[in-house]
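Exercise: predict the structure of this protein bound to DLZ.
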Amino acid sequence: MSSADKNLSVFSTNDLPDISNKKFAIVVAEWNDEITEKLFEGAYQTLLQYGALAQNIERGNVPGSFELTLGAHWYAQREDIDAVIAIGVVIQGETKHNDYINHAVAQGITNISIQNNKPVIFGVLTPNNMEQAIDRAGGVHGNKGDEAAMTAIKMVGLKDKIFVR
Ligand code: DLZ
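Solution:
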């Protein structure tokens, strides 16, 4: 399915783990905040809906998506945090910046996830324009924040399944 056809808020919810004792951090880029606030809200509400406790969800803001990697790394280093969700929006085509930012953040988040041995989720929209961003921030294509939170939940569950006996 192409991403244009996918609704980001529709996912399989079979066999989800109990996350009532899991801690999550959500790192939010302030650039394009009219969109990132909606993504944050989607992620936050999805974690609550599937069993996370409000006191177990922390939020930290960073200025732009480029800083998501370091912000997420700081949270991921904390023993008590089980998963980190990085939220940002980089509009393609506005400046050359987007190539550098998108690649750096995607690579950075992959690296810190592996270094810290815990899920660090890429909740970053990379649309061609603002309309596509709106469509994926609670619009016709659902909410990327919902999908990022569900990914965090599933990865936390998989880690426990593999390592906790
Ligand atoms: C500079 C910049 C540009 C041009 N575009 C975006 C964007 O679309 N989305 C985003 O999250 N951040 C953008 N930034 C800011 C950078 O991520 C970073 O915060 C600055 O380059 C630091 O000076």
